[in-house]
Amino acid sequence: MCRAAGLVVRLNGEAASASTSSVPSPRLAMPSPAASSTASPRLPRRGLHDMTSAREGELLQQVKASVPRLSCSMVKGECGRVGVFGGCVMHTGAAYFAAIAALRCGADVVHVFCEREAGPVVRGYSPELAVHPVLDQEYGMEEIEHWLPRLHAVVLGPGLGRNQSMGGRLALVLEKIKALELPVVVDADGLWHLASNPLMLRGYSRAVITPNPQEFSRLARGILNIEVAPSLLPDPETVSKLARALGHLTILHKGSEDVISDGRTVELGHSPGSPRRCGGQGDLLAGLLAAFLAWGHRGEPGPAPCLVAAWGASRLARACAAQAFAVAGRGMLAQDVLDAIRPEFARLYESETFL
Known about the structure:
Layout: E1 2-4, E2 7-9, E3 27-29, H1 33-36, H2 54-66, E4 81-85, H3 92-105, E5 109-113, H4 119-125, E6 130-132, H5 140-147, E7 153-156, H6 164-180, E8 184-186, H7 189-196, E9 207-209, H8 213-224, H9 236-245, E10 250-253, E11 258-261, E12 265-269, H10 281-296, H11 305-328, H12 334-339, H13 341-349
Parallel strand pairs: 3-12, 4-5, 4-7, 5-6, 7-8, 8-9, 9-10
Antiparallel strand pairs: 1-2, 10-11, 11-12
Helix pairs in contact: 2-11, 3-10, 7-8, 8-9, 10-11, 11-13
């Protein structure tokens, strides 16, 4: 680990020392030692959240500025309509967690597009979701074309499946998303298809991909033609290099520190998370990110809206996981993380976002 002028940089997972002038391009926004040394999430959360670096404070304000101010004059949908494409019959939970996380974050309406046999299962999870069991149906694209223009952001991949026909359907949906200029999160099985067909997303700057270490390794092999060992402490320059190769879309590499880059700038999500890794946490992050993307692209977007949305979703997801672990410990489940979204969102982002 290198510490220079209050900055922390990890290079290739090894300890190193350097001056701030030696940090490679792109610009790295790094945490201060005080922020990175925050104690175990088992400690009381009160008091920890004030330990932020100047850059974190700036990003927090940018995220807050993107959150719509609530008022009694609003109509349903103004705070975001999100679509989730996923949920084969064997993996309905992934689509559900992504969808319900977007709702808990504050999106008004979430549509789930899934396979026919998965539809009743997803409906059974929550009556709050609008479910369209059409992904594997001949008429499915017609219904998708009807609903896509009404959405503000889309998630592609949770529980989608990896068969060849679904990959072809995914490519068609992405073409329609790009034509409508919708922000999109590609996660899970969507990343598996992307590794074999990177052209379907290359150059689309409103896209954010959210690989874990194994998925990033597969993408690096398929797109950069290099072998990158899966690591919870990825090299920021390699993450940035992949973002550039994909035409400056945004990458949120999940790990013990989340590394976020569009190939120009790197931001780190280093706030406390959870040592407990249970299924569903990545799906929750994808749903949170979709809500932030929907808000960040409203009206006149601020600078680097995808980077800001990715950092904001990462910060919230890590805070929810830390809080859930503080309560449930080793037995923490994705539902515990989901239950923490409302209080943690209020703590981090709610001030000055309601009337």
